[in-house]
Amino acid sequence: MSSKSIAQPDINSSEFLEYLEHALDGPVVLQKPMSPAEYMAILSAINASQQDSGYEIMENSAFTIVQHSRALYFWLINYAVRVFSGIYNEAAVLQGESLLTYYLKQWKHFQWSCRLLSNLFTSIDKQWIEREWNTNYMCVAETLVQLWYRYLFKPISTRLVSSAMTLINSERSSGVIDSMLIVKLYKSFMELRPLNMPEIHVNYREYFGVYIRYYEMPYIDAVVRYIDSNIHNLRTANKLRQYIEKLHTLVLQEEQHAKQYLCPESLVPLQTHINNEFLIRYIEPINNLVTQMVMDDPDGLRISYALLQRFEKYSVLQHLQTEFVSNARDSILLNCPKCPEDGRASMSEFTLNAIAYLSDHYELGKATINTLFNGNLIFDKAFEHMFKELINSNKVENWFKVNPARLAAEYCNLVLKSRTTTELNFTDMLKKAMNVFKASSNRTMFYSFYSLHLSRRLINSTIITMDFERTAISIIYETALSIENEGEVSIAGLAAINFDKHKQMISEISAQQPHVELENCQASARVLSEEVWDSVKPDADRNIVLPKQLSKACDQFSTHFNNRVIKWQWRHTTATAQVHFPQSKSKYAMFTFVLNAFQVAILSLFTEPMAASDDPVYTIQQINKETNISVERIDAELNIMTKAKILIRTQDGIKLNQYYNSKHQRIDISRIKAIIKRREEQKLECEVAENQIKYVTADIVHLMKSFKTISHNELFERVGSRRGNYFTVTMPLFKAAISKLLDKEYICRNSDDLNVYEYLA
């Protein structure tokens, strides 16, 4: 329906009929012929009736208002049917793009005509239709929409949609089409909304019945047929890996098309149909495939997840999540470090390796979720939950032989003491411990041991820098706050309490130290608050007998602090004492020793002898009586001093080594203690290695007797599997055992292949 551009006459003008004919693009045809005067009388009566209140018969007129309105209404229906039939006849010979173009042009003209006729026949809508609604008469605009649907749209709808699908198929084959033509078509379907049509009624989106019935459903069916035609052979051949990969590609392609050629509300029905047709039917084999992909096919897993994430309401995504988390847990447990059997000889190295191992697997799991699963929060929470359960499980604690929370605190201590720690790696290394700290439920234990190690580092001056200590405290505090923000409840503000406590410890240790000077003695002291330094255990030996100079210095400090009670921590003291060895063969006769208070008290018995003896000898019981130091402490300190060769043990007791000799004039006894300890550890490690070589050698001989000839790699793997429950067979250990057997001629190398061993009977 189209219009011609002419001036609109007054409604009472005799030219109105001609104007109406031009506007309606065709002659006015009535079932009963009427003259222009009669027609104008009808329009005038209807127009005048807009201010009347009822069906009043006009004076000198042969028609009532009702009769006039009904006649005009049926005339309008008759006219519209004739026009739509003409449009249909023209569309019947068209196909493809030309049909779509013609239909959209006529739809545009129809919408314009509906607005025009609704304005022209306003009186019918207001004065007659509203009062005759119970007789199934509809307003002029709705009547025209129904006529368009029945006499034009419905007969050609199949050809319209078929033409649109043909164009979309052409685009799939890299053809060039006018995509806006299809967009305008589906929008015209959405705009066509005839009322009271049961055949297009839907329970949802009720105003889009025409669009759903005639466009959305055929479009979805076409997509399903297209996908099936491309993957049917893969499915029948049971090539499920290729099936998922191809399906993923096709789904992405069709979803891009759907975003352009469907309204947004149609995307969910499209996804549901694809899921039902191509995934839900094969859910069990897909689950089995995903289980395998989790272990050895990350690329396939990424593609599978991208496809299976559509199933948030189905069990398949839950299955994938469960398999991923289970595999991650098994991967952590597979090579989890175990506490060394040789006590604390390798505990430091084990602590560093264990925390790094747990943290690296945690970071790997998080990175995998971001890479393969687009950071899915459900997967992330499930992985976090698994990691927390693992960290707090008895299995890990039994392997470590220590709670992971304590191990994290030990790790922080090693990092903050190590001279290899730099500004570049400090934060990253500390973050590893924080990953375990966050997962641990026993954070009280972490704070307890961290406070203990912090106090030892500060008192013994083994820190790297004070800035590192402050930064570490801040990182721990921020990590604890992040845990609280995730919804976990802190225990009475545990994080804040320890944060303030650790800052106070650093503040007190950095404060200026009081200093006193006496004859032949200079002393300084660090004054610490007992409530802040509660991790420092009090000395059992408090009332020891000190040399006179040190005793006077302690009295001076007590006076300095207004006679307050001072609890001395003797084991944390450091003193320098000069001792003269006149019979020493060294170039020095006077040596300076760095000792603690216990060692000073013991050594003073030998360097300040009574006149009765120039070379006194004391037993442990006598030293206990003279110094008031416990026997256990005396024995420990004597052990160090005798190994340092300052004192010597005789049958009668302990005496000063008058022939002490050293190339150094200043000797730090604590360093000697560390050197001795390191030598003992090295000796123990050598003994362990020798024993391990013996076991590996015995296993090699046993295997060679069975196989007679075996390759180097196979022999190494078999020995490793036999000894895996006891210790790790390294390649240097294995080669040492092989070399030993080659030297003894128990085995030899094959002359043709040196990587093959032969057993010599």
What's the short version?
This protein is mainly α and 761 residues long.
Major sheet: arrangement of strands: 3-4-8
User: What is the number of E strands?
Assistant: 11
Q: Work out the strand percent.
A: 5-15%
Find the structural class using helix and strand composition: mainly alpha
Instruction: Outline the biggest β-sheet.
Output: 3 strands, mixed
Q: Per the principal axes of the C-alpha atoms, what is the gross shape?
A: elongated
Q: Give the rounded overall mean pLDDT.
A: 76
The helicity comes to 55-70%
Cα separation of the termini: 108 Å
Structure description:
The chain is mostly helical and 761 residues long. Helices cover 62% and strands 5% of the residues. The protein is built from 28 helices and eleven strands. The strands form four sheets. Strands 3-4-8 form a three-stranded mixed sheet. It has a three-stranded antiparallel sheet with strand order 5-7-6. A three-stranded antiparallel sheet has the order 9-11-10. Strand 1 (515-518) and strand 2 form a beta hairpin. Helix 14 packs antiparallel against helix 15 and helix 14 (347-372) crosses helix 17 (404-417). Mean pLDDT is 76; it is low at 1-14, 23-34, 45-66 and 127-134.
